[in-house]
Amino acid sequence: MSDTLNLLVTGGAGYIGSHAVSQLLEADHRVTVVDNLYSGHRWAVSDSAEFIEGDAGDPELMDEVASRKKFDAVFHFAGHIEVAESVQKPLKYYGNNSCVSKNLIQVCLKHKINHFIFSSTAAVYGKPETFPVTEDLPGNPINPYGRSKLVTEWMLSDAASVNSDFKYIALRYFNVAGARLDGTLGQATPNATHLIKVASQAACGIRSGVDIYGTDYNTPDGTCIRDYIHVDDLAAAHLDALLYLRSGGSSDAFNCGYGNGFSVREIIETVKKVSGADFQVSEKGRRAGDPDQLYCDPSRIKKILNWKPRFDRIDLICETAFRWEKKLNQMK
Q1: Which whole-number Å values give the CA distances from 281 to 88, 212, 293, in the listed order?
Q2: 224-234, pLDDT tens digit by residue?
Q3: DSSP string for residues in 7-22
Q4: How many CB atoms within 10 Å of residue 219?
Q5: Are residues 109 and 210 in the same domain?
Q6: Could you give the residue ranges of the DSSP H alpha helices within 195-279?
Q7: Which residue range is the domain that position 267 belongs to?
Q8: Of 58, 115, 209, 210, whose CB count within 10 A is highest?
Q9: Distance in angstroms (rounded) separating the CA atoms of residues 196 and 192
């Protein structure tokens, strides 16, 4: 098989997608990005990639794009990701996450794009009763965001069951954070609600402080515990998934996390430490749809995909996020 592949990336101008595009280009692949710039940025996509502004769920557009090139694989990053918003606007999430994915899968089957790598989420597990979370736990999401992603996993599984050449990998992200160590890319999503992003903004003086949503969870300090993964390690997992499928691997789903749980209070204190800044912390009521804790067992992805994380340090994750936030603020 050829070392250089033609790859289609949806949502490649977004936070995680842009990091994956960068690594795919560094691996000498030819990359075409389709992004409607709802939450992504044109500047985040290298000029070495072809960029098409449009909706990945537009069947006519995607049919035309797929007709022009013989793509070897698709990476599907496009989607909405805010849990709280999904509770308030569920149909928005089923429309943009599930329905867009259905349209894209149909295009892939029509044009024989047989390798599909999907951005799923740990939210498909809901509130698991055993930890760390393993992939054999049943999907039981507690919010529309998680349900919309699990629906896509089901569609991929069903499509693969009746199309023997079609293979997929669903990567179930835990909490993604941090930025490229060289400072060229990071999270620039407008109105982002992710904790490390918000705390970094507070450390830079962009926000007045950080709110803790719920202090009565069943955890040691009463705040939610999450598994944080550096964005470049996550991006590398997508390249590992591509290599696995190209080598004859079967369809599967994998947890993407380090297996380390950190509470909201621990993250806030880490950001304060690496930034050298203090900021106000306010305690609020719980948000709908937040489980007490969520951290994974990453042993399967390490064994089967041969994934080797390089940035498994919470202080490094927070430090790169803070440095990126300072740079992003200076760019405005």
Answers
A1: 25, 7, 21
A2: 999 999 999 99
A3: EEEETTTSHHHHHHHH
A4: 17
A5: no
A6: 195-203, 231-246, 264-275
A7: 195-226+259-296+310-331
A8: 115
A9: 10
Q: How far apart are CA 132 and CA 129, in angstroms?
A: 9
Longest CA–CA separation in the chain, Å? 56
pLDDT < 70 stretches in the chain: 1-2, 289, 332
Q: Which amino acid is at 170?
A: A
Closest CA to 12 of 185, 266, 253, 213: 185
**Per-residue pLDDT, 332:** 66
Beta strand extents in 72-163 (DSSP E only) = 73-76, 115-121
The values of phi and psi at residue 39, to 5°, are -130, 0
Structure-block tokens of residue 240: 């590992």
**What is the set of active-site residues?**
145
Contact 305, 241 (CB under 8 A): yes
Judge whether 186 lies within some domain: no
User: Scanning the structure block, which residue is given the tokens 């990453």?
Assistant: 298
- The mean pLDDT of the chain is 96
Domain count, the chain: 2
126 and 96 in a single domain? The answer is yes
Residue 11 in any domain: the answer is yes
What is the per-residue pLDDT for 1?
A: 41
Does residue 142 fall inside a structural domain? Answer: yes
* Shared-domain flag, residues 35 and 95: yes
Q: Is residue 301 part of a domain?
A: no
Q: How far is CA 160 from CA 46, 105, 122, 135, 187, in A?
A: 32, 10, 22, 19, 33
Residues 143 and 216 in one domain: no
**pTM passes above 0.85:** yes
